[in-house]
Amino acid sequence: MSNSERASDQKTENDTSSEIPGINRQYLIAELSKLPQWQSDLINQVFNAMKDYYCLPQKLAGNNEYEFKIALIETFKKLKAEDQERLESFKALTPLSYDDTENTDESTPTRKPTSANEYAVYLNAINKTLENFDSHLRLQYNSKFIAERKSDEIVKGEHSAKFNLGSGPPQEELLEMNTFRSKPEINYGFISQPKRGSIPDDIGYIKIDCLLDPQLGANEKEEKYRIGPNAIKAANEAMKKLVGKKGIIIDLRDAEEGGSPEMVQHLISFFIKQKGMVYNEIEDRFTNTEPPYRTPYKIKDTPFTLFDVPVTILTDNTTFSAREEIAYDLQQLNIHLQQTGEQSGDRFKVIGEVSRGGAHPTRSYPLVDSSREINSDIVVWMPDSESINKTSGTNWERKGVQPDIPIKKGEDALDVAIGHLRSAIAQSSKESKAEEEKKLTSTATLVAKRMKINPSTLTRHTESSKLSDNEQKSSSQKSGNAKNKDTDVTDEEMARSAFGQGSDTARSFKKR
């Protein structure tokens, strides 16, 4: 064995935790040593970053490290086998033009990729494996971004590092994002008409495709860079169109992006009366505090409100991350407000399919090798925070948001939502009428008790108030025959006056 091979084996052994049971640890070290150096280094770099910042460190402890690394090793081995299979096919198809002497280490998968295209096949496969561990976890080729980072923008630890990007993206990046997001068909992620079908006039509709961070470019003076504030403005304009509607549809389907918890906070606050109430917390490992710091998310004030109307939220298997949070938070608030007696009935209903199941907010992190040098090509997008809903005590990670009304095969969630809202609106109208009649009867009983007359007399006059003005005047004239000469009005009419019903004379009467 050469000195370089011995050094490589020693490095692999040093990068492998002693927490792994003996036999598995030896097997892992042996398997890592079989990979090209850049591949085994990449596996260890990703794991070391996760060990310091991943939001669920218990998933990496002990034998979990073994399972995590073996899964990535198997992915690289599979890619090598597929490459060899393609090579053999090429040799069989073009035996005369293929030259074995060209098949050196420099032209095989052992060579470290040097461009986005060369990395693509590896990262696509690796990311599928990482997503099985956590749906937000992925690697990204971004050599330009890494090269542009200044020394004070990368904070190095013993085995890992993190970006310190307090100033936000540069202006050219903000301008590019704003130019793209401001297109009318995108409108910063807020669309007021469905792609298919139509919405009844008395029902409001909003489709949410992404949730941009309200603070993105907020410190910039020129509008073209202020993508976050522009997104808030677009959100408010889209929500304003829902005012006065008898029912509302929030469509979270047919999109791939997630977004910002702060934009989620802004949107759900339109629907909830209990301002200042904490509905969610995010536990953050980025700060490296012990225990991890928790940020409370509260219902905040909004420019206008959308209280007391039934709301349906549409989901499918593309609904992901922050868009899932809208559905989950409103679903859990529905439960909380019923438990506390602040709301009767199900105001919020999730309709459709189980969502994708990604609850952990992410950041990008640099990768660091054993000599504490930064990987110049790859960053890892890693979940470093955990959402903890105040009602459920958990989140939708891996499980997805479970619909209250699952759609059946052949059904369209939009049609189901419209049908549900039609029923909810009718029921709400019926309940409002019953409540109004209840208040009417209660007031009639109270007034009648004070005036010492039969309550049914007042309720009859309440019904008669629906007559035309001429009919009411005729009724008033007939009752006038029984008026007391001293008061010019009967006790019954005085009671009707107190109750706000009856003839015009009774309404204008003041007791002398």
Can you count the helices? 15
Global morphology: elongated
**Portion in beta strands:** 5-15%
Work out the number of β strands.
14
Spans of at least 5 consecutive residues whose pLDDT stays below 50 are 1-10, 96-108, 464-470, 475-489, 491-512
Mean pLDDT, as a whole number? 83
N/C terminus separation: 118 Å
Q: From the alpha-carbon coordinates, what is the Rg to the nearest angstrom? A: 34 Å
Share of helix among residues? 40-55%
Strand order of the largest sheet: 4-5-6-9-10-14
The helix/strand class is alpha/beta
SSE succession? HHHHHEHEEHEEHEHEEEHEEEEEHHHHH
The main β sheet shows up as:
6 strands, mixed
Commentary on this structure:
Helix 10 links the parallel strand 9 and strand 10. The N terminus and C terminus are likely disordered. The longest helix has 39 residues. The chain is elongated. It contains 15 helices and 14 strands. The protein is of the alpha/beta class. A six-stranded mixed sheet has the order 4-5-6-9-10-14, with helices on both faces. The protein has a three-stranded antiparallel sheet with strand order 1-12-11. Strands 8-7-13 form a three-stranded antiparallel sheet.
